[in-house]
Amino acid sequence: MTKNPRTPVTVLGLGLMGEALAGAFLREGHPATVWNRTAAKADRLAGRGATRAGSARDAVAAAPLVLVCLTGYDAVHEVLGPLGDVLDGRVVVNLTSGTSAEARDTAAWVERQGGTYLDGAIMAIPDAIGTPDAAVLYSGPRAAFDLHERALGSLGGTATYLGADHGLSALYDVGVLSLMWNILNGFLQGAALLGAAGVEATAFAPVARNGIETVAGWLAGYARQIDDGVHPAADSTLDTHLAAMEHLVQESESHGVDAGLPRFIRALAAEAVAAGRGGEGYTALIDRFRKPSD
Ligand code: FVH
């Protein structure tokens, strides 16, 4: 008898990410059954030992653990919708991006079919899957995560369990995406400003990176302030921030660089200062994010 047999796994959806996921399971010795709407995308995986299923139903029937990675939830419902009863007794792990409401609705539907649902968010690109750089977040029933944690560990890095609320993975996902886009927009703003003075973005990049790392170091302390609801100006007051934001707006305007984002940033702080909060620290703005004014 084989020692420590690996859980058989099914992967539905063999786009860039789905193929990487299935490949990681194969690498770790999991019997993998794969299915994709465009069947030819299973060719490479079949060549590596995956079993190619003729239909999504056959694929799901082949394993207790079913991973889904499709373009979006419309595709998820198109593929899973007709399967119904075959989901009974299986754990469906959906790594398709979507909203928390979509995750919760899909969880309720899978559970009505007798299956168990974990939602997941992949914080990695396909090339990182199966390496220590891949982080995948999961939410849903703890017992299902515990049961398959080892198999899910094949995807690399850390498999992080967030909690029982199926919507958590999607919320963490958009939280991190918000961070990413804000950082990238800030970088583009800086690169445009320096570009107007003839400085190349490559010269700005190392200085920008240093700035990002400095701010990253503040997060744990700032998070404590947000959770405690106190916003001491230990490093800098909102008044001081607002004065510096004014420079950002003026520089952007005078160099003909788009000033929309700087003006928005300035407006957030100006509102708080006008409300008498200029002596508080930056995290005081959390109230504006929690309760936006029109
Ligand atoms: N690629 C990445 O770096 C990111 C990392 C973070 C999370 N995402 C999410 O993963 C989902 C899939 O992304 P992907 O990169 O694999 O996307 P594609 O390569 O475009 O593959 C899409 C697959 O979905 C299949 N599909 C689409 N619509 C349907 C449908 N109606 N019925 C059945 N399958 C459908 C498509 O099949 P085909 O076109 O090959 O026949 C692909 O298998 C996504 O949520 C990302 O946000 C990836």
TrEMBL record:
InterPro entries: 6PGD_dom2 (IPR013328), 6PGDH_NADP-bd (IPR006115), HIBADH-related (IPR015815), HIBADH-related_NP60_sf (IPR051265), NAD(P)-bd_dom_sf (IPR036291), RedAm-like_C (IPR048666). One of its GO terms (molecular function) is oxidoreductase activity. It is an enzyme of class 1 (oxidoreductase). Keywords: Oxidoreductase. Residues 9-163 form the 6-phosphogluconate dehydrogenase NADP-binding domain. It comes from the Bacteria. Its EC number is 1.1.-.-. Belongs to the HIBADH-related family. This is NAD(P)-dependent oxidoreductase. It comes from Nonomuraea spiralis.
